[in-house]
Amino acid sequence: MTHDTERNNSKYDQDQIEMMKERCILVDENDNCIGSADKWDCHRITEQSEGKLHRAFSVFLFDEQGRLLLQQRSAEKITFPNHYTNTCCSHPLNFKEELETKDQLGVRNAAKRKLNHELGIPLDQINIDQFKYLTRIHYKSASDDKWVEHEIDYILFLKAKVDLNINPNEVRSYKYVSENDLKQLFKDSETASLSEPILITPWFKIIYNNFLSSWWSNLDKIESLKADDKIHKMI
């Protein structure tokens, strides 16, 4: 069965399937670009492959009160539907503006594009220089027996006052949370019933458990934090 036939016969949301045609940036374990592949190939579990390593980003956007904008992914999402996660998580794509590696410019351009697409944040409210790059993580986690995320994920912080116009095909719900609010959400997720689970994306769990508290405590002086150029392997 060809990709096109499989997609056309798919049970998945057609808007989400259309975005699976976008081409991600394939990388090696040192984050060197080695080509491109569409999102379908990057995330699909097959007999030949359990996903292809590609570049990604995770944005943590904070308001003027220091609260984190949290989103719950829509039910239409193909990977990790209905999961809570950080503000915006996606991929730079394989074109010039998002391939640039100097000062993480390509990732920053992609983050600005997706903040607009998912959350409706006007483009003129985000300046790419506002993004604070912190580090990269290399992780792999299956969403189910058909889909997997295998990424080198750039972590970006942003503190800004923004307007939201949520895209319901991308985002089911959203809210601003304090650090204590988020801590409670993670606690509740551990005790939630199987019939009413509180789902959290694996990359968000990794970042929360290993990095987020120290970064958050320095939010008002985030520019003083030195970017960590290490790729943290969380496989």
From TrEMBL:
Keyword flag Lipid metabolism: yes
Reaction(s) the record says it catalyses: isopentenyl diphosphate = dimethylallyl diphosphate
This enzyme's EC code(s): 5.3.3.2
Pathway participation: Isoprenoid biosynthesis; dimethylallyl diphosphate biosynthesis; dimethylallyl diphosphate from isopentenyl diphosphate: step 1/1
Pfam family of the protein (one): NUDIX
Gene3D superfamilies the record matches: Nucleoside Triphosphate Pyrophosphohydrolase (3.90.79.10)
GO cellular component terms, semicolon-separated: cytoplasm
Cofactors required: Mg(2+)
Keyword vocabulary terms for this entry: Isomerase, Isoprene biosynthesis, Lipid biosynthesis, Lipid metabolism, Magnesium, Metal-binding, Steroid biosynthesis
Molecular function (Gene Ontology), one example: metal ion binding
Keyword Transmembrane among UniProt keywords: no
Limits of the Nudix hydrolase domain: 52-206
Similarity annotation: Belongs to the IPP isomerase type 1 family.
Name of the molecule in the record: isopentenyl-diphosphate Delta-isomerase
Species name: Smittium culicis
